[in-house]
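Support case: user asked for a sample of complex input and structure output to validate their parser. Sending the pair below.
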Amino acid sequence: MKITRRLLGKAALGLAGAALLMQVPAMAQDRPAPFDKPGAVKIALVRYLSTGDFFQAYLSGVEAQAKALGVDLRVLDSRQDAALQADMVDQAIALGVQGIIIQHGLTESMKEAAQRAVDAGIKVVAFDVNVENPKIPQIEQSDRDLARLALEQAIKDNGESWKAGYVYVAGIAPLDRRNETWVDFKKKYAGINEAAMFGTLDNPIANSVANQARSVLSANPDIKVMFAPYDEFAKGVKIAVDEAGLSQDIKIYSADISTSDIAAMREPDSAWAATAATNPAVVGQVSVRALAQLLAGEDPGKNVIVPPTLITQKNLIDKDIKNMEDLSAKLPQFAHADVAMPAWMPNPNAK
Amino acid sequence: MSSGWVRMAAARDHAIRYGFIVLLFGLIAYFAIAADGFVSPQSAVFIFQSVAITGVLALGVTATLVVGGFDLSIGSVATSAMMAAAYVMVVLEQNAVVAIVACLLIGAVVGLINGWLIVYMRVPDLLATLGMMFLLVGLQRIPTEGRSIATGMTMPDGSVANGTFGRAFLALGRHRFDFFIPNLIPVSVVVLLVLAVLIWFFLEYTRFGRMMYAVGSNQRAAELAGAPVKAYKIWAYVISGVFASIGGILLAARLGRGDIASGNNLLLDAVAAALIGYAVLGAAKPNAFGTAVGAVFVGVLLQGLTMMNAPYYTQDFIKGVVLVVALVFTFALSGRGTR
Amino acid sequence: MGNDAVFRVDGLRKSFGPIEVLGGVSLDLHAGEVTVLMGANGAGKSTLVKIISGVYERGGGTMSLAGQNFAPKTPAEAIRAGVVTVHQNINDGVVADLDVATNLTLDRLSGSGAPTLFNPRRVRREAKAVANRMGLMIDLKARISDLSLADRQMVAIARAMAHQPKVLILDEPTSSLSSAEADRLFALLDWLREQGVAILYISHRMSDIRRLADRIVSMRDGVVSGVFDSKPLDYEGAVNAMLGRKIQLDRIVARNSARPVLTIDGLRIAEGSRPISLTLGDGEVVAITGLVGVGKTALAETLFGVRKPLSGTMVLNGKAYAPGSTGEAIAAGVFLVAKDRSENGIVGDFNIQENISLPFHKRMSRLGVLKRRVERATARRQIGELGIVCRSEKDEMSALSGGNQQKVMVARWMSQAARLFILDEPFQGVDISARRDIAAKLRASANGRATLLFVTELDEALETADRILVMSEQSIVGEHRNADIDLERLLAEVAGGPLHSAA
């Protein structure tokens, strides 16, 4: 017994030690090259869009995953300058990075730059920009799924027949994809009657949309559902609904989420019923993981799709979710996506 | 000479004087027929509410136009004030009064700096205020590292900001006064009307306003008439800055959070309103009444068009058309531009 | 003679709204002759010139140039046809930001057939040719904005001459020239006359007219009131035809003053200049005369707080006076009618009433709110006092003639009592009758203040002042009581040394 006890104790210690080691870079030896040596890999994030909560969160996800993997991350931000973004790819090549994440941008300006990077033997992934290159996997948050989740909830809450207001600005790729789903739903459910379509990107967007929504509501006071598949739109619509005193009569369904959105949805009698969202931090993590897979010689697939999560007003209140951190903590499907997640990949969310 | 000529001249005078007001009423009549629910007290109040923020900014920029200047920074002053209000309440957990005072201070200080750059550093007005615009767009992001501010947000250092927008502050965006109909007139509309009357009275009836017009028309003559021209110019930018920060306060109260935004659309709409104002009553110069009418004109147009489901780009187009027509009224018909 | 007219105007009419400005004007210009056009302000001279030069469309009548019908629709058309005008406002004739050479060749840069590329060397070569032909002695590389008004004027005329016109119209060309510069201009005009150019010369200056005129045409109230072409020319008759009344050259009864208002001691207004000391008395009208650029305006501005003296003291009403701003000067009762009214005086967006009240808002308001009734009453009173011709106190300034605009400027500063009333070139661009009105008003109201005029024209000083001071090189070099003036000595002082030829 004594021996057994000692043995057991040793085994327990060993296990605990192993568990501890799981989290420290010493474990890196178990990863495939080149991730077996911490700090050996250098990657670059070349951004087109960077201002706003979404992009801030995306960056934090990229940083978290890069840190977990022990890679050296360089962030190059072109601030919506398409030509500069292309130049920045060349800069990254000159810096000697092994991998590049292209975050947004224009197909026309990035296609050739991406090809140059591939030609230089650099692994590239692209998020939300189609660079028309078979060697470059696309990271996508599924806009169609986002719209679908929100609209399915709308059908569930309100039945198949209602008068709707729809907020949409054509020509913005994610909104166009969300629009396809809306068009499909209108075909599928003949009872959906789109009484008004409006929208603007004049900033502050919420303020401008609120002005429009007020006009729409005074022209169509019998609207039951507002589909605003972008959270800035939804905020504007909510302001207008509140100002018109219709918050009991109208339900808003949207896409995307932020801390202030959570607060708005949690307000007493809030008209904002549900939103479907992909956690931008998770998208950031997936971007790095897909790139890491490429570098390790694995294939993440042509399209890496990050699935969205449906967040309802009820969820938020029942689970007492007050901000994005609570959301990640209390809705696990929001905090982590099992995408591009081979066994060796460290999970940045693990504590 | 001939009475026909006199009649024609009088008719032209009338067209210039009242043309825009007639156009405004024509527009209202058209929308009343074309769009259901356009004519109602609520609808009227809403038109004012939708232009309250840009209207306040426009009144401020009118003051700089009067002294022959221009302020491109008003949009970013407004959004910076909005961020400041949110920061003071949410992050620093102060009350509404502190937030409002902080915003007004920001507006006044930005105005002083603009005035100083233009008057003492001799930077041309457009360039100085353009620089200030960029500066503020950047500055408003620094405290939160580019995040929008809302209760419960995570700060760059990982802590959570727990302050909230004070009830009193939110009331600026949400409270409504009874006016024949209960809960009719929002605070922002009252603010707009009060400021419009104030600046109108100031510009038209006080010696300070009169001298500001003199500075704008012939700075040298004003100086030789004993006016402290530099002080007047700086004051004009302070007025502009403070008005813009009031616009920012109203914006923060309406949105209930601090949004990162450049405020460029606010700037453009405000400038459009002030320029349309040139044409009202044939003034052919910046004036507060015209600016207010210009703002309402834009509001009526957008309200009507949105109610008729016109997409957003047609609204920009029509705003542009109105502005061009107003400028033609001002410069060609009244013949001011050539003198 | 009448048949060889190069340029002929017949029955020209023009109305602005209900107001007829030209009521059938006929005029002949002959090659190799200087025709002087005289007329009080509002007589229609400027309108006539603007129709001839293609700025305005005529209302009726015909014009012909060398027998051909002449009806220019634009100024450029008139110039191409050979009718060139040098306008009174010098800055209309030159581009301030460009250098002299480019200005002289400007018209060749833009006309059809002009080379696309700007070749500085060629431009300078052509400019040099123009300048030499005209005897212009100005650095061709100098920027116009750095030149004196007189030099700008010479450039504007030289530029006009580059077109080799058949008809040259000059609208008060000497109003801002010194007499030496005017002599240069006259020499140039003599030469042009010999070349066979027909010249229409508009001026109020009798000395110019005596020097140049071959014929005099007087205008009054939109019609020609007299043509004088038999030698010797009847100058007095021309003036009478223009004014419609016999002018009485009032003899000034020079006054003396015992009570000093302003005493200046050792004032220096420029580096290296001699100090100025003088005393101005109550009820006295003093004129300071001197050539352009001798520091008259600098002295006026020093007294008015626009600039600070280098050294010296001023005493006003027995108290030390050192104004730090125009506002302080006005508060102390020192008023200035600045020269060049369109630049320094008139607020274009304001009507007559608002222009008059401009410096005295504080005195006309309570709690910062303007008392409009007081403002209007003041304006009406001043309009009456100075005989300003207008429909009402609400008229725009641009609707007034030059003389009436100047009367408004004087009315502005006479609407409140001054201790020291300074007028810098108050008769610039003002017709004779308005000038006499203003001078009479100044003298009549002189009691209770000291009045100080700065004038370049000696005539103006002689007509108005009790005492004449002469300024040269930023200092006072002579003093004369306007009773028994030694003109020889005065002119010598003006010229700053040896006796000057031009009177």
